[in-house]
């Protein structure tokens, strides 16, 4: 045992050293990679956004912007408030389908790079006759959209740092000879929105849902139908109302806390939630829903907590393959039968996965190459990183923290843009990352680190 602890201490020192060598421009994983969205919403119903949705659809299809070739409309609001969901519903509305000749959905996320975005967007725009193979992506977009009206959604912009970079992105989209083209943007950040728009009145600030609409959404997450809701005693519903008032109109909080209340629709459980100390952790920001998410996590059974907790080792934009996730848990040795049960470990994993989906911590994203795949909303992923921060560390392309706590037991290294084929091999990941590490000194440290970790698990 002493020998193992000694070895771990050595590993910890090495990792600290690597991080120090990387310098302050690298940052620890929180907020690094982000969930990749598509134009399809997983929500069967859009609650409480009828007015704003109709007004956006009306404005972009009924000529309000007909004087301009291109109008940029940013939707701004805190995480989990429903910006992406609203944009998805706008994108698929009947009028929008009819009005625009070309529609493209692009999830931008971190690392805004105009040239890269132009290249990626070009792939989604239908080709026209007579295209030259030597043209750049920007020129191709210009040609293809010349006589077409288009809608481009840029979802989840984080760091378009300069106006020049933003203008560079717009160049190919301004060549259209048709007016009323629209770029709809979603972002959490007001500063990003200001870089993008000329007229402030184009911005849409998305706030929490109004109480009545919020209650409808909240109660729908808790109860399966109107009958079971109506059968509940008034006191329980009043307690639910009080809990709802703490959720700041956030649909993500409604979903997560709603599912927590659903597990046990009785007054004792709901009062415990209402009186939880977690609500006192609010950091002064009006839109902070982390306490609500943390509370839901705290109430999960221990085994489910563990399964969720270690998901922090994956990057935020990760699509979890069902088998891969279950094998990951098996590898961590966290799947155990209850006393007296004799289940296969794979079945226990599947049951935990299904329960985590039921609690809203993972979402079923349909199928990826024939196999079921799952995602974690980025705020929930932030929560996983928070609760596991003493034990798990993810190193991504930037690091804020230059210290590795002695308590860290799991390290994941996620390297952007590499073609790491074997994700299950940490060694492979690290070696693949070497080519992106500029200094020979640092590469040497990494090799040494691998040398002293004979058995690694990813
Ligand atoms: N109006 C709504 N009706 C029903 N569900 C909603 C609504 N708005 C959002 N949701 C659900 O709430 C969750 C969070 O919404 P969404 O991802 O759209 O938030 P966001 O503002 O884009 O967050 P982020 O800034 O993290 O990207 C999603 O699971 C979504 O399905
Ligand atoms: Mg979003």
UniProtKB/TrEMBL annotation:
<feature type="domain" description="NB-ARC">
    <location>
        <begin position="67"/>
        <end position="225"/>
    </location>
</feature>
<dbReference type="InterPro" id="IPR058922">
    <property type="entry name" value="WHD_DRP"/>
</dbReference>
<dbReference type="InterPro" id="IPR002182">
    <property type="entry name" value="NB-ARC"/>
</dbReference>
<protein>
    <submittedName>
        <fullName>Uncharacterized protein</fullName>
    </submittedName>
</protein>
<dbReference type="InterPro" id="IPR027417">
    <property type="entry name" value="P-loop_NTPase"/>
</dbReference>
<dbReference type="GO" id="GO:0006952">
    <property type="term" value="P:defense response"/>
</dbReference>
<dbReference type="InterPro" id="IPR042197">
    <property type="entry name" value="Apaf_helical"/>
</dbReference>
<dbReference type="GO" id="GO:0043531">
    <property type="term" value="F:ADP binding"/>
</dbReference>
<feature type="domain" description="Disease resistance protein winged helix">
    <location>
        <begin position="313"/>
        <end position="384"/>
    </location>
</feature>
<dbReference type="Pfam" id="PF23559">
    <property type="entry name" value="WHD_DRP"/>
</dbReference>
<dbReference type="InterPro" id="IPR036388">
    <property type="entry name" value="WH-like_DNA-bd_sf"/>
</dbReference>
<dbReference type="Pfam" id="PF00931">
    <property type="entry name" value="NB-ARC"/>
</dbReference>
<dbReference type="InterPro" id="IPR044974">
    <property type="entry name" value="Disease_R_plants"/>
</dbReference>
<keyword id="KW-0677">Repeat</keyword>
<keyword id="KW-0611">Plant defense</keyword>
